[in-house]
Write a structure and sequence with these properties.
The protein is built from 36 helices and 33 strands. Helix 24 links the parallel strand 31 and strand 32. It is elongated. It is found in: Golgi apparatus, trans-Golgi network membrane; Membrane.
Length: 1030
Amino acid sequence: MCGNMLFCCDWLINICRRKKELKARTVWLGCPEKCEEKYPRNAIKNQKYNFFTFIPGVLYEQFKFFLNLYFLVVSCSQFVPALKIGYLYTYWAPLGFVLAVTMVREAVDEFRRYQRDKEMNSQLYSKLTIRVADLTGHLIGMIFFLTNINMLFPQNQRIPSDMVFLRTSEKTGSCFIRTDQLDGETDWKLKVAVSCTQRLPALGDLFSISAYVYAQKPQLDIHSFEGTFTREDSDPTVHESLSIENTLWASTVVASGTVIGVVIYTGKETRSVMNTSNPKNKVGLLDLELNQLTKALFLALVALSIVMVTLQGFVGPWYRNLFRFLLLFSYIIPISLRVNLDMGKAAYGWMIMKDDNIPGTVVRTSTIPEELGRLVYLLTDKTGTLTQNEMIFKRLHLGTVSYGTDTMDEIQNHIVNSYSQSSAPKVRKTVSSRIHEAVKAIALCHNVTPVYESHAGVTGETEYAEVDQNFSDENRTYQASSPDEVALVQWTESVGLTLVNRDLTSMQLKSPGGQILTYYILQVFPFTSESKRMGIIVRDESTGEITFYMKGADVAMSTIVQYNDWLEEECGNMAREGLRTLVVAKKSLTEEQYQDFENRYNQAKLSIHDRALKVAAVVESLEREMELLCLTGVEDQLQADVRPTLEMLRNAGIKIWMLTGDKLETATCIAKSSHLVSRTQDIHIFRPVISRGEAHLELNAFRRKHDCALVISGDSLEVCLKYYEHEFVELACQCPAVVCCRCSPTQKAHIVKLLQHHTGKRTCAIGDGGNDVSMIQAADCGIGIEGKEGKQASLAADFSITQFKHIGRLLMVHGRNSYKRSAALGQFVMHRGLIISTMQAVFSSVFYFASIPLYQGFLMVGYATIYTMFPVFSLVLDQDVKPEMALLYPELYKDLTKGRSLSFKTFLIWVLISIYQGGILMYGALLLFESEFVHVVAISFTALILTELLMVALTIRTWHWLMVVAEFFSLGCYVASLAFLNEYFDVAFITTVTFLWKVSAITVVSCLPLYILKYLKRKFSPPSYSKLTS
């Protein structure tokens, strides 16, 4: 019977947990009622809780921590009469305060999330419909009308769901969208309307045709889509293949013209929502260390209670006495520890964001500022992080002749001559004709669109128009998905061949003489990370010639072009200069060759299964024996102050690894020019390996090298990690610098996890693009740079900076201060609890091990709050070294990584101080009290408050005016409150001279030896930083 019930319960749980299977779908245009399946609502929900789950959810998140659960049990025990040892509020007030602060913070965050969701979900869009009665349930199949920001709407109008692009107001049948919220890229992307619906005479005809879209099942990949568009009521039936260029994903913005699209995916099935992952909750090393110390304190608490019960002789209900002792000494574990540390972290975050020396810095994860002071490994991206991602054309190589920046005028002269001469056929190609061919190929083979600004907008804002027949040079800008391409087109403009217009079917170039040359675009093969090349087939309007142009990386192009003896060598030479190289080639096609290719290509594009493979195979049939035209070199300039920043980090003992997708030669060159590898260091280039044996030999060769930087490619790294993971990581960690080139985003994250696993040291990842997000989220501390590649990395990071050079101050100054301050604050809060527990232990042992509290009610609450809170918290303003000194001597950072500011050794010293001071305060008060017990409380409590204030003063290394205010304010509060504490103190006694001298004597005995010890330590064993500041 029980077995059946368990089976039923498991079955029910599985039913509840089961995720809905994602399916491909057929979407009829304008007919949502034809959808047989139920699809998700198109609403965004980022909230963690709802009205009913908020309080249980927040309480669970709090009490899963040992510290808070312990205090909940202690507080609840006070409802049991036999265990009650004081007023309820002495336990519930601190716990209630902690929970109230947490709940308010969570409620504010939750309300903000709700407001953001509500704002997004209540945006209005124009829906096309011909029905009077409207179906509100289904969105799939609905047709929406969207416009760019300059025409009707004052704000950016984001696309509400994933759609297929049916129609646009642009004559070209295409429009631009911005995808910054989806992939982090700031460049505009060109999208193409379905030609069948674009050709319809009127907008209303969308409802008069019988057509449907077949869409693949929802998936993660934002860069691919496979589907077909079918119109049934035409003869013959129209079939059109749909790809990524026909889609409008949710969260992108229409940048030009008006757009009409049909909804295919909604809500949780949209690409943007599917790609939203919750990053892991990062916990700082200092928090883990303090958690260990808290557990040690708990063991001490249990041991002390057992000792007291043992000395009592286990008389009576000893287990009840044991629990009462556990409650009496519960202040050993301070509840205020988490509150103080969380407030401290918030203060450090505020200080970082307010630092004028690093403007624009944002702290997105406020829980780990101390991590900035404990880093051993820094993993950095190259493009856009160390370099500016600003491309400048530097070199053109034709095989026999090379042109640099100083000889560009020669190219200009050749171009002018070639267009001014009559085009008589030449038997042998001259240098001039070869230059002309190369420049024309660069001017045609790209995905760049010229955009013209016109200031005649209706709203008075700037408008963008794709076509402006003036083609004036002043207001032309180029839009492309790659800065390399823009640099190439800007260079062809500078030598006389200007791209003036481009649409889906043609592009126009302007010759030096002002003549407009038109080329019809027959096919475009976009660049992908797999193919590493892009191609275009164009037909010259004047001659009718069909030419296939292609450009790409040398590794991809070397097998495609005809045999030559210079390409590989020159690519290496340019890479050594730090230039990004592209190989440009062409192939002339006859009409028959092209028609044959087009038929096969269209057939491959319509296939539903393995479409990408079939299309690639057809294109590869063209990529044979192409004529090599030229090699181009583009420079990516270094970011400001990269060299001194990397040198500072290296001197601080931080090991820097550069992980890049770029080729080996360019990466090596940037490593040298940025001083990632110092001038005196050797570089060991790890040879390409594909088998276990080769990896073994190469690792042995590398083992014999000493103090040299390592350069390795992603493929070789994969082989080494497969067979010799431990050995490779051990060798690589000994290198002063490591460069990994041709790295994929997942490989970058894998390297971070490897270092964490094998070394146990703290890692930091810094990057600026969407491809760095996985590495940033995997690292203990992720830093994002707001760069040309968009904001995706900076939004996913724990800290966001505007320039790479700011990382020096962030680590050396703020990292140091955050760690040192939190270490001092955490230990002092523990000391505050230990000293009062020691006094309680002495008091109980003197009075026959009675489990009676020494201080009750408001005295206990006041001690942890108003009497000592402000001076203790003012430790977050302390600093041991001035910021200028920390930046001048980065070697000081090495000490922090050893974790000496908070360790079992320093903790033990604080425990001994607490035992000494607690003992002196209690025994001193017992020796000096005369007749009444009330005098013991008055003398010992006053001496305790004074001791704590003096100990804060002893701990402080650099005084701040707020620290002085906090000390005197707390002392003033205590003195003022004495008038109201007649329940605990004899007011007549505390105004006498006797009281004052007894308190002063005890306080001096408890604090003076520590002041003397501190003076002697600084005199004979000063810390490293004191030698610099003296």
